[in-house]
Structures are given as C-alpha cells and as structure tokens.
Fold this sequence. Notes:
alpha/beta
Amino acid sequence: MRAAVLHETGQDKLEVLDDVEAVGFGPGKVRLRIRATGLCHSDLSAMNGVLPQPAPFVPGHEGAGEVIDVGDGVTGLSAGDRVLVCWLPACGVCPSCKRGQTHLCLAGFMNAGTPNFKRPGGDVFGFAGTGTFTEEVVVGADCAVPIPDDVPFEIAALIGCGVTTGLGAAINTAQVEAGSSVAVIGCGGVGISAIQGARVQGAAQIVAVDPVASRREAALRFGATEAVSPDAFADAKARITAGEGFDYVFEVVGKSVTARTAYENTRRGGTLCIVGAGAMDDNFQVNMFELFFDEKRILPSMYGGGDVLRSYERAIALWRAGRIDLESMITHRVRLDGINDALDQMRTGESLRTCIEL
C-alpha cells in the first residue's frame, strides 16, 4: 500500500512508500479506501513540531473515501458507503460530551498515540489518529461519517476540517451579527471559510488581511469586501471603523504576534476569535488593565466550536444552496507523488487548498 511518510519531526519532505500497511482492524473499527484528501496547514505544523505528533507518521486528516470493511459491533456503516474522515470524534460519555461541548472531547487525541500503520522497519503513526495521505487507513467507526451521494469526495474532504473550522468560528463561536464589521487575519483555506461564514451571517464589512497578493484576490471572490496587506491593516481600521476597531477579528495564523495585532484591531467590547493552531511555547500576552478596561471577548475556536456532525450537515446544506463556494477553494490537484510540491505551494501561500487524489 502506498502512503506518504514523515520519518522525523522537522523534516520538510515526505517520502512516498509502497511498503506501508494499515493496521488495527477489529471490533469497532472500519477500513477505508481514501479517495481524496486535503492538505491543511495543521499537517505542516505537525511536520515541523509546532503541533505534537509522534513520528514516524503519515500526515493528513482531511479525507474522504469509501468503507472497505467493518469490524464486529459496527452499526450504521457497510462496505461501499461513502464517508468523510472525522479526526475528532466525540465519545459521548466524557464530561465535555455530557456538557454538549463535543468538540472538546479528548478521545480522538488519545488515538494519536496508537500506530495506524506499520512498515518492515516498525510502527508508523497516523496524524491526529487518522493519517489520510495514504490509499487505505483503519480508524474507529465514529471517525467515518456517511456523506450523501451528491457530495464529491474532494468537497467532503474539505468539510472534514478546514471548512468546518472556519465556518464554525464565525457561526458557532463568534456568532457574528448581521450588519457588523469583521476582519480576518490569514486567508488560507480556514480563513477563506471564516470569511464565507461571516458573509453567511450577514456581516456588512469583511476585511481580509494577508501578505500574499493571490490570497487577497481570492478573499474578494469569496465574500470579503476589502482585502489588504498587513501593513495596510491600520489604515483599513481607521477608514472603516473610524479608528474604533472591528466588531469581530479572526486570527487564523496561529502566532502570538498576529493574535496581538488582532486584539489591537478589535473594538472595545468586541470579539477576538482565535482560530489558528499555534505552538505551546508561543505566549500571547495581554496586560491586566487592558483586559479589564477594554472588555474584549477573547474566544478560542476549536474545530469550529460546535457539534461537528451538525456542522458537517450545515456545510453541506449551505453548499447545496449556493450560499458557500467550496469547489473554488481547491486551487491545486495532485496525485500522491506530487505531495512535496503541494507542501511547497502551501508554504509560499500559492495554494488555498490542494486536493490529493488517490
């Protein structure tokens, strides 16, 4: 079986191998044939060590495909079913799940410490307990979510992470109000999804902030009313909000410096929504006086901040209705052998989302 493997954390290239075997099939598990998978910035973050992940590992967590086989005790799934991969399934019994905060369930993270694959040289892990840069993968049955027949695999893959994260940040976490002003810092796939979420919610002004010109141009096509480089952000704040700051600012980069910029461009009493996944040693600082005096809401958003199954359904409904554009988010398509070119395109900001077709 072919899969793309990172041998050591910190390496910037993946090796596509044909001696990888998916392991762990048994009761409660399903074997999937991956048909399409998106390249998400979190994959890069795991490769360079920003996000913790045992190595060697197969990156990828934004995938869709078909069920090959189901283990004992699995209900609701059969061979041939079309599914998307949910990398953060809810266990239903932990305190977070019982409170209705299923996106905070830790059961999925526990899967990251169990190898999903093996090679002649030893065990290989799957990123976030999945690992979708591969032809086949074994996951828990709750990681395989059935999708309707009219949803293409590449669209379902995007919904499995980036789209759900960005839309959910605007709709679930920040609950953007109609007529409000919004700024989104970082306009990759997740940032573009946040822009689309703010548009769906009825925001009046949506300013996209990104250093890459092609991403700024793309943001305008997806609903931003204006797109500026970071050095023009202060001017946009002055022009659009009379210097007061935006009602909502989304940080979709995952760095303390951009989070601080986002805080400073949020109006007093406004909402700063942290969407980017950053490093454990990168500390965001706010002094106690401004925290009290400005009364800005600082809302982190994990995987869209809501029930992911409901969020998947909502994304599909909005896509069917033409309220969000998912097809145009896929700017590049490659086969597995082209994965390293796709990684370079993401690093430079050339791509919004690359679909890896298997």
